[in-house]
Amino acid sequence: MVSVVLFWVLALAAVVFGFAVFRLNSMAQVTFALLASFLAVAGLVVVLGLSYLGVVIALMMVIEMVIMAVFMIMYMMNPAGLMPMSMYHNKAGSMAIAVGTFVVLGAGIFLVDWPTRQGVAAPDPTFALGEALMGGQMLTMMTLGVTLFATIVATVVLSTNRGRYDRFGDDLRAPRADDPAGGGVGR
Amino acid sequence: MTLQLFLLLGAGLFSIGLYGALSQMSIVMIMMGLELMLNGVIVATAAFWFYVAPAGTDGQVLIVVVITAMAIEMAAGFAVATAIYRTRQVDMTDDAADLKG
Choosing among A53, A72, A146, which should be mutated to test the B contact, i.e. which has the most B CBs within 10 A? Predict the structure, then answer.
């Protein structure tokens, strides 16, 4: 009974806050609306019995949205929403595509004959997940690790202002680094 | 609570995210739309694990993959936004339409 009430409250919150993301003016409000939607989904994951993953989602999304808020204020023209402006293109077409997608997915959801529940959950799903990631799903875990490392390298390369080729030339043979501010002892 | 209700919620979040990703002009808002779409995927995956195959761990592993994809998407997206802003002061998709066919 409690879980049914929780489901409806959290599901409604996830959708309402999700839609608010594209309706609010202030960028700070937008970010925290998205965070609220993520937290509702994390709550639903906990309701389904995956408490570890739910908490991981909640923790990750809190940090991610706070970082996002910083970037929002860096890049958006209207961070506080004091100057309402429209930053949409093809609004009607996008809405039509989104509604169409929802209708198609909904039709599939109700028309497909879903398989029935088979087996029972492990007494401790977190333990089972850990065993899987360190055992049968080790390749998945390693792929994720390598991908994350590649992301670190790629993001640093992309966001660096001046790399070594800017400083030492294309063949890296310049005797001195071409820096805007001279270093050394003032020669 | 049934599998269908959870999937319907996932489809709803996915569609809202799709609307945002298609209609917004700002690169940061587009990334928010993509995150919302993945949010719907998380709900659907957790529901599938619970209602179809709770004995296995594949559903849980898939959620871990999706969470990682969200983190990577945001990091890479902000790096690209930083790079294009640094060279051309562009923060809207309409200003970066060089590859438009």
Answer: A53
Task: Provide ipTM, 2 decimals.
Answer: 0.91
What tokens does A111 get? 């028309």
For residue A182, the distance in angstroms to the closest alpha carbon of chain B comes to 22
Can you read off the two tokens belonging to residue A70?
A: 């910083």
Cβ–Cβ < 8 Å for B92, B25: yes
Burial B39-64 (b: 16+ CB within 10 A, else e): bbbbbbbbbbbbbbbbebbbbbbbbb
Residue-level length of chain A = 187
Nearest CB partner across the interface for A159, out of B54, B82, B94: B82
Contact A87 B8 (CB under 8 A): no
Helix A27-47 × helix A2-20 angle, to 10°: 160
Would residue A81 be called left, alpha or beta, if left means φ above 0 and alpha means ψ between -120 and 50 degrees? left
Q: What is the mean pLDDT of each run of 10 residues along chain A (187 residues)?
A: 92 94 83 93 94 94 88 70 69 92 95 89 90 92 95 92 83 83 63
Q: DSSP state, A21?
A: T
Contact assignment for B32 to A117 by CB distance below 8 Å: no
Q: What is the pTM of this model?
A: 0.88
Name which of B22, B50, B57 is nearest A49 (Cβ-Cβ).
B50
What is each CA distance from A179 to A162, A163, A165, A166, B18, in whole angstroms?
A: 9, 11, 11, 9, 44
Interface check B24 vs A, CB under 8 A: yes
B11 interfaces chain A, CB cutoff of 8 Å: yes
